[in-house]
């Protein structure tokens, strides 16, 4: 008989509370809502957190993997109570039916919000804790954009956050969480954690880890992990500013085997974050400035206009028309726009088929607050089911379903329309339908930073555009009601932080 029975789960969503859309159970079903062996089939061999869990556990002969429930939806509006209760019911039910478990590995996000629960990750961990024995080891992975609730560390000290943005270390952190669980089970090691929360709300535009302040902070974190034997994980959570909840904000979470050292590192990092905070503020060009720059751009590789305010991975609806409308007017030679989420236009193209000419009213369907729909005459070039596999390096091997796709041409511009909102994080999104992005002079995409992991070598320049949208870089445009106040940069405050320990 196997010695250790380890449960594996995934519960993941980044919720934009200002979004007009709600995230329902069908949004989870579209992305991933899996039970039992389907989990292993879906994630084994992928560079995801769960892929990392599985790889480590499979190295140990004495481990039996107990797949529980995996539920993930792409970032969008607040999760409905109904969807949360459905997933909670499945997950807790599966744990209760699984017999005696020896540990649980669960991939969480940290910025999920449910209609009546501001911190569902903590709520779910609490439910899990109640369903298992009090000292059962539980380890999580968390997203760099998590708004981490202080109670999380009280439920388990083992948390491993991403250290990259774009998040290309999901697998690595999953791997590390699983290794730590095995170390704990085999050697009975005791772990401690301290969470330091700062009254700081940072825009995410400059949280990239290739350069800038987040790079310096994560480099420091990595060097401490490598050099201090008492420290297992140091994570800086930039936070997600579009969740209007009491837990919103930046934090540092330290995991280790010596409480005193863990506290010291936590305090050290709050100081660093406080000193670096100004460097996260970034001024962006207007739509007109960006379009003018794109028109005059001459390069060997394309220039990318990033419509960051409508990045679906930051909760954008994927259908705003601010930038699109100016680009259609400018009719820029050899340009590409994508993906635009528009089910109605997609359906017209599907019905008329490739080779037809159609009249469309593009975008602006979710809310005209960020631009009205644009009337265009378009040529339908190609229509697909919208299914392809990512080539990475982020989410390598993961099957993507855009819910249908069409490639249309409007004047000199190629436009990709999809049946759901999603960021162009992998060139396969365009290539699967026959569009080669590297052949374009100008590419406009609804992206923020994740796309860089696969587009960096394909493009010459990126311009982040200050267009209207739900994921605007300017935090002063949001009507916050629930975040803790005072908070920087909305208020003027002195250095302060709150420390919560696991024990
Ligand atoms: Zn993230």
Automatic annotation (TrEMBL):
Q: Name one Pfam family in it.
A: DUF1485
Superkingdom of this protein's organism: Bacteria
Tell me the ranges covered by the Microcystin LR degradation protein MlrC C-terminal domain, including all copies.
305-482
Transmembrane portions of the chain:
none
Read off the InterPro entries from this record. MlrC, MlrC_C, MlrC_N
Residue ranges of domain Microcystin LR degradation protein MlrC N-terminal in the record? 5-295
**Under what name is this protein listed?**
M81 family metallopeptidase
